[in-house]
UniProtKB/TrEMBL annotation:
CDD domains: FN3 (cd00063). This is Cellulose 1,4-beta-cellobiosidase. Residues 33-175 form the PA14 domain. InterPro entries: FN3_dom, FN3_sf, Ig-like_fold, PA14/GLEYA, PA14_dom. Residues 270-359 form the Fibronectin type-III domain. GO terms for biological process: polysaccharide catabolic process. The keyword Signal applies. GO terms for molecular function: hydrolase activity, acting on glycosyl bonds. Residues 1-29 form the signal peptide.
Amino acid sequence: MKPVSLATAVVLATAGGLLTSAAASPASAATNCTSPVYKRQIYANTNFSGTAKQTACDAAISENWGTGAPASGVPKDNFSVRWSVTRDFGSGGPFTLSASGLDGIRVYLDGSRKISLWRNTSATVAKTVNVTVPSGKHTLRVDYVHWTGSAKVAVTYTPRTTAAVDKVRPLAPAGAAWNYQVADGRSTAKLSWAANKEMDLAGYRVYRQAAGSTAWARIGTTTTARRTFDDTPPHTGQSYRYQVRAYDKAGNESAGTGALGPVPTRDFTAPAAPVLTVTSSVDTNELSWTAPSDAVAYSVFRKQPGDTEWKEYTPETTTTTWTDSYPAYGEVYEYKIRAYDAAWNHADSAVVTGRTTIAVPRHVTATTPDHGAVIGWTDPAGNDTETYSVLRSPATSAARTWAPVTCGSRKTATDASGATVRTCTDSSGHRGTPYAYAVIRKDTYGRWSSPSAEIVVTRPGDEVAPPAVTGLTAKALEYGVRLQWHASPAADLAEYRIYEQPADFDTPSYVGTVDATRTYAMLRMTADGEQKRYVVLAVDRWGNVASYVGDPEGDGTYWDQPVAAVKVTELDLRPTAPAPENTACDLDAIPLASGAVQVDPYCYGSRFKEADGYQVYRWDRVKATWTRLTDAPVTAPYWTDTTAPAGTTLYYLVSFTNADGTEAFSNVDDAVTGPAT
């Protein structure tokens, strides 16, 4: 419940549009309230008639009297309260009015009703409306009537500050003033201005303009609470003017204040640095440079790289060229130009080097075939070249460390104009690494030229081997082993290489190569039950592949990167019965492309000859016995088994007939037939 009389009332003062508390006059004297504080009047009736029972000042409308009386001499039911305030809204703009409470509430702007909640209610009622407030001063009035029950009321007005809604610029700051002070020859502008009346003010921006210019450049921003700004402008001898603008929370910016100034400055600013160029010939270094707009004179300085002091030439020249006529041939000289303005401020150019030189190679080009970098150039006219050297430097940084290249191939040709064109192929260096190249030449007098213009080349490819293949499996078949794996993800894959390596520490033996389109290999071999271990490596088009390095560190690492390996035990299709002792000729069983097997005994140094006639036997795995394939002795040098099963391992032997009618047998030999197509 609000007390009957207030020792003090709360009033508000404006600070950049924000409300802050300030001490008020005693309630008995608070009939005039300072904007933006409300004047509150409480009546002992519901029609605001007669003399108010209490008049006071409120910073805000937010009351909850409950079921009690709002002031002495006022009943707890059937009373009314009126608040009113007249304030400056600055540039105006979009606002939100909100009201809530119990019983009757009406809100007026300049006498125009904007909210009406006028009824006796036991439940809280509320309403919010958007309004546009014109610029300048306007009056807000709130009427509240309480009939019975509990009494409470709240009313607010707030600016709408989103950029999509608020398009109204703030008013320009008022009361702008300026002055300047000089210390150590430098002028500092001192600006001030009055608080802006905008309720949604975000701050102030300060702009500067040089004499003779129409453009304003923003140089600073202040908060709503800070309304002063100091600036020491560039001391170029010009004068400067200033302007202050207000901006709101939606980003709208006001017009500027009137120009504040001028603030004069002395010229302490050097001219722009000239841009120096040196052109070298056999006998001279020719200097030329740009002329900054306010430069009136120049000095030329020269030294050699090992010197610590510069020597000045032609001080205070007004030209923008100079010829160094006496440099030693082939020596490097450093030059710089100093530009002076009328106030004798000065600036130096960048240091540029010159080196007297015979004509340098021209039109340097580069191509990058897979096998290296081919550098080409054209000799200068005159045909006085004795030899040349191609220089190379890593180009990963600005600094160059030149070294001569050993040309893997040198070629000389003549172009359509009759000029000599030369090339050098550099096959060294790393793939994927950028290199800079330049060419120097020596004439018939033994003078080396300066380097040509450089050209940067990145050799194609890389030096990273593809990752280990995945999904490697091995399956034993009657006619060998089938290896299979997942396709390598390497974009530059060229092929797969297969090695047999019984153990990690064994040197791998090359088996064969599979092109990049296949992910399997059929290794045709005798199914004799051996255990095998295979390694499959992916190879890219640049020849990068994992390498076997042994175990120099003793840490069990035998390849320079992980590899895929698989073990497999072959099927064992060898004869299960012992073969007869070899007492006759030797035998070769040779699989043919047709699928047949050629059985070829050879009897050098034996008492038997092929022409003596021989019988051919083949091991029958089903019957577990040697089965004779021939009906009569064969007297030809070889015999062809056209009944050989496809896709398996076969074992053969031949026999000759001794004088006593017994058989003498050859050795056993195997033949592996391919699968049926």
